[in-house]
Amino acid sequence: MKYSGQNWSLAALTASLILALSGQSVRANVYASNIKLNGVLNNASVVQGGTVNISYILNEPANSGVTIKIYSGAAVVRTVNVAGGGTGALRGANTVARNCKDDSNANVPLGTYTITIMAASTGHSAWDQISNDSDAG
Q: Is the Cβ–Cβ distance between 100 and 58 less than 8 Å?
């Protein structure tokens, strides 16, 4: 079935109205975006034994916390856990400063590392990414 521009808009409006009137809540999961190390998106330079600022934006508060993992190849060299409700788990811009040490507190060698950020929030049973470009978060 084809929709013309006008019919498609009417169909979308009708679907939105049905969802709004159905009383169902919209669920979303929290996620990190715009991840930077020392202010850059890639190829950040850090001196051995120095500090790295990991910054990111959360679309919603991570009331169950944030886990940051730093990898050398496939091996995790550092895991940083941030408690929910505090700095690093808030909606909007966050920065977590860490020294360049592994989980056993030894300096990591110079090299290439990757990072993952997993944010969690309770009460969501499915992934529904929702966003509003005019929203500051």
A: no
Three-state secondary structure string covering 3-46: CCHHHHHHHHHHHHHHHHHCCCCCCCCCCEEEEEECCECCCCCC
Report which residue type is found at 58.
L
Give all domains of the chain, ordered by start, each with its CATH number: 32-120 (2.60.40.4070)
Q: Tens digits of per-residue pLDDT, 35-63? A: 998 888 887 777 777 888 999 999 889 99
pLDDT tens-digit series, residues 102-122 = 899 998 888 888 889 999 888
Looking up tokens 């990072």, which residue turns up?
A: 115
Residues 6+ apart with CB under 8 A from 88: 66, 82, 94, 95, 96
| Per-residue exposure over 88-113, b if at least 16 CB sit within 10 Å of its own CB, e if not | bbbeeebebeeebebeeeeebeeeeb
DSSP reduced 3-state for 64:
coil
Rounded to two decimals, the pTM is 0.68
Cα–Cα distance, 96 to 78 (Å, whole number): 13
